[in-house]
Amino acid sequence: MGPVGHTLVSVGIGGTVWAATGASASVAAASVTGVLIDVDHVLDYYNWYWRKDKGRLYVLLHGWEYSAVSLVLVLALWYHPVLLAAVLGHIGHLIGDQIGNRPIHPLAYSVIYRISAGFDRPRLAGEVPETFSEAFNKIPLWSKIEPFVVRVASRLGITLR
Ligand SMILES: [Zn+2]
Predict the structure, then answer these.
(1) CA-CA to 61 of 20 to 30 Å: which in 29, 30, 37, 133?
(2) Local confidence band at 159 (pLDDT 50, 70, 90 cut-offs)
(3) pLDDT tens-digit readout, 116-140
(4) Residue 159 β-bridge partners
(5) Interval between CA 142 and ligand 1 midpoint (Å)
(6) Mean pLDDT of the region 48-71
(7) Please, how many CA atoms are within 13 Å of residue 98, restricted to the half-sphere of its CB?
(8) pTM
(9) CA of 158 to the centre of ligand 1 (A)
(10) Which residues place a Cβ less than 5 A from the ion ligand 1?
């Protein structure tokens, strides 16, 4: 699932928790965990498109285990509606990725499984976008943003393809 879908799902989750509990910060909490966890792709994209090594898939913030442990902690020990919204945002993100990205292995979003598989990208995710440009084309207006990113990267001595 792309950033627009994750944003819609997260705002929906946060808004639902807000409506049910009165905690308006739930929208921000669900959005942070439901959208910004994709920042972990930076490490993979660095390896794939800068170091030209597509052998591993890390996505270190994507893990059903984080969701499960967090949900238990929030419900059993530290209940707060904003924390609940944060956990539900993370769960919503993983459901979106599990359905929308269709990983080659059904356990690809388990961090324990990825560790046991040695983060082996072909085994976990199959093919990945060939180029940097293709990897980011789910971002709205990417065609307008890409030239700027490529220019900045070039000034830093980074060739993105
Ligand atoms: Zn994701």
Answers:
(1) 133
(2) confident
(3) 999 999 999 888 888 888 888 878 8
(4) none
(5) 18
(6) 95
(7) 14
(8) 0.88
(9) 25
(10) 38, 97
